[in-house]
Write a structure and sequence with these properties.
heterodimer, A: mainly beta, 9 strands, B: 122 residues, mainly beta, 0% helix
């Protein structure tokens, strides 16, 4: 059972906008920043969003992040077939002397 | 360009030990926190351990505390993960990662190593 809760799956059609949620608590998302990762099959994860809303250079502006209270969301607009991947949220948790925590992951299918 | 190359994985028997290494290049190693993240076959990402930029503070997941030790050698720009008392449930791809901003409590990892596979089986 992951500390951060994500829906196991999401889907959309090309061109559509979808959102993936990530729910935490006061000791993680409520206090610290959230990052989002995209993982294609057989590859290392790729950083999509850091510090809740920032995109590293090279990440298309179709990807956006937001945070409110103890929850965060990743939005993907103009959905493309190459967006089909697993997506993970992550945050630092201040409990137990400090630890990193990930969501369980959301598998995005582009129909 | 920042780059990480991790290696050292392999097949080990339950109760055995293994040391993973991660060689960093293209950035000032002592300015960034570093971490290890693992992924069991067919499962999600699991944070394993992190170390501050100067190595003065370390953090561990409960699942590995007391068995794994993270360390860094600034003379060789290398991150290590010493894994002892290995269990079947430690079987996973292990990735080293650099924090994008530098702080240990940011969890924004970029880049990642290519991963090294650890298999614990008799």
């Amino acid at each position: 059972q992951s500390v951060l809760t994500q829906p196991p799956s999401a889907s959309g059609t090309p061109g559509q906008r979808i959102t993936i949620s990530c729910s935490g608590s006061s000791s993680n998302i409520g206090t610290n920043t959230v990052s989002w990762y995209q993982q294609l099959p057989g590859t290392a994860p790729k950083l999509l969003i850091y510090s809740n809303v920032q995109r590293p250079s090279g990440v298309p502006d179709r990807f956006s992040g937001s945070k409110s209270g103890t929850s965060a969301s990743l939005a993907i607009s103009g959905l493309q077939s190459e967006d089909e991947a697993d997506y993970y949220c992550a945050s630092w948790d201040d409990s137990l002397n400090g630890r990193g925590v990930f969501g369980g992951g959301t598998k995005l299918t582009v129909l | 360009e920042a780059q990480l190359v991790d290696f050292g994985g392999g097949l080990v028997k339950p109760g055995g030990s293994l040391r993973l290494s991660c060689v960093a290049s293209g950035f000032t190693f002592t300015s960034y926190a570093m971490s290890w993240v693992r992924q069991a076959p067919g499962k999600g990402l699991e944070w394993v351990s992190s170390i501050k930029n100067r190595g003065d503070d370390t953090y561990y997941a409960d699942s590995v505390k007391g068995r794994f030790t993270i360390s860094r050698d600034i003379s060789s720009n290398t991150l290590y993960l010493q894994m002892n008392s290995l269990r079947a449930e430690d079987t996973a791809m292990y990735y080293c990662a650099k924090d994008f901003l530098g702080s240990v409590d940011h969890l924004g990892f970029d880049p990642w190593g290519q991963g090294t596979l650890v298999t614990v089986s008799s």
